[in-house]
Amino acid sequence: MENLIGKSIENYRIVSVLGKGGMGIVYKAYDTKLDRYVAIKLLNSNVVDKDRFVERFKREAKNHAKLSHPNIVTVYGFIEYSNLLGIVMEYVEGESLEKVIDRQGRFNLSDVIYILKQLLQGIGYAHIKGFIHRDIKPSNIILNKEGVTKIMDFGISKSLYDNDMTKTGSKIGTVYYMSPEQIRGQDVTNKSDIYSIGCTIYEMITGLPPFDFTSEYEVMDAHLKKSPPKLSEKVAGIPEELEKIISKALQKDPNSRYSSCEEMLKDVQHLDKLITKINTSYFERIPQRSTKYKFFAISAFVGAGLFLILLMYFVIKQVDSILNSNEIEKFKKYSIQSLFSGNENKYNFTEINRLPSNILTNLNSISFSEDNSFATIVADSGYILNSFDGGNTWIKKNISSKINLSDVWTLKNGNTILVGDSSTILFGMKNLDSLISIPIEKGITFFRIKFNKNNVGFITGTKGTILKSLDGGQTWARTKTNTKEIIFDVDFFDEKTGFAVGWNGTILTTTNGGDNWYKIENDKTDNYLKSIDLTEKGYGLIVGGDGTILRTSDFGNNWEKINLSFSGGFQKVKFIDDEYCLIVGSRGMMLVSKDQGETWNVVDSKIFSNLNGLTVNSYGKIFIVGVNGMIFRIQ
């Protein structure tokens, strides 16, 4: 996207950049006709299905413009410029909840109630008008310099009365604030927004979201199965009434939550009356103090002693949490060189190098062509990285501002297939010179794509989905799985026998080449199973949540659990050859086995962020990708 600072689009003169994200760039602009500042969100319209995207964009802008409420950022209209589309909206001078939390740790109780009331009024108004936000989170709530709460980014909202725009199954929203029904790909209602409001308020009070895990899948699993720690366990002095309000908003079953924002608002207003007797909110006490970066000071009435006690409590809890979350640190760690050196080793890996990617988006998977001349990395927000020199350098491109791409596979003929959310299957000719969208049923998030030696392909996804292709990925058909659980990964011992793994410890097997799948009993774990890799000699490994490793040495007739006694999510497992195996996961976890997965050593990777995918190219170099644009090469 070209630099637009100083340029004019219609009657708007671009002044500065307000922010950048996966969906585009937000500019501050001056409206020369109406003599006011506005914010313009510009999105690149170079997408696979441009006509559909443009039409959808215009409809969403028009729908959002129908919302007129003091707690919702006003949309004025949309613009088209060159190859860009833009939403013109109210410019709010202020700070997001996310930035306030980052700066001061958390909010005081009076300010929480003050903001919550406005949030419920704004979202409740949108619900009455037939709109669901679907992505409520601290970064989408801004406080202007007068302390007014403004809800932003209805760009992914859908009209409840527009059936074409309310398809389920797309993973819309941010995982820390997503409702259980969003994670399952089920219908999203106003109660889903109420759940996200509960998550947001929980973080305002404690400084952390309800489920603060490093792995996305651990967070998703917690939303579905676990109860968050009580507010009173995190912060002293929380009223029981507030505990009940947040607890009701965070119920797993939508029918057990508040039926509407108005119902929740009544309880909050009742609580506010109790709070007011003790402590008047900052905004009512000092309305004239409106400095941009000082919305929320600790109430003067709070004594220094109480403040120190609370601060000590908060610090102790944080330190304790950090210490307890790093169980893997108890294990002896080995350098790559020490694990792959000596006459008995087949490989001579000596170091882990980080390669520049020039991107901060989460990288999810990597694939090389058979001759190593071409490689692809897929990422969130429609980003792709390509390499034409064996993975030494990477070139960024973007196919869409919304699609999160989860996996990629390069075939022997050079064709490449990419999969992701919103039922996305993209077919690319050699070197991805062009991309074709493969039509498939709507409402599915795809996670993994694999082809066997006979060029038969499989894709896994939500709603128990396993797709099969017999023509090199140009067409796909659903197989019979008899489950609605999320299926994360699939692999085969031979052309007939294979296994698939997924949510809640799900293990499926097939003996007819993947046309029919049957669930097998798994009494080893009910955690999510994220990755599977099998060899022609009958060895296989499955990895997943809480450090789960399952192993077979008899073509999957029996699976044993390898007990390593540490928590954390594993993301990918791969046999480097018939004996050597590698696992990567959260917080830079990297494990190596030299005996088909029977015993494991922890690598001192010097990496402390989540690792998502790995592959081995034809030259025997290992490539690993992770969050924040991280690419590592072991050589």
From TrEMBL:
Membrane-traversing stretches: 295-316
Residues where ATP binds: K41
Pfam families in the record: Pkinase, PSII_BNR
InterPro entries in alphabetical order: Kinase-like_dom_sf, Prot_kinase_dom, Protein_kinase_ATP_BS, PSII_CF48-like_dom, Ser/Thr_kinase_AS, Ser_Thr_kinase, WD40/YVTN_repeat-like_dom_sf
GO molecular function, one term: protein serine/threonine kinase activity
Keywords: ATP-binding, Kinase, Membrane, Nucleotide-binding, Serine/threonine-protein kinase, Transferase, Transmembrane, Transmembrane helix
Recorded superkingdom: Bacteria
Residue ranges of every copy of the Protein kinase domain listed in the record: 12-275
Repressor among keywords: no
Keyword Hydrolase tagged: no
EC number: 2.7.11.1
SUPFAM superfamilies documented for this protein: Oligoxyloglucan reducing end-specific cellobiohydrolase (SSF110296), Protein kinase-like (PK-like) (SSF56112)
GO CC terms in record: cytoplasm
Protein name per Swiss-Prot or TrEMBL: non-specific serine/threonine protein kinase
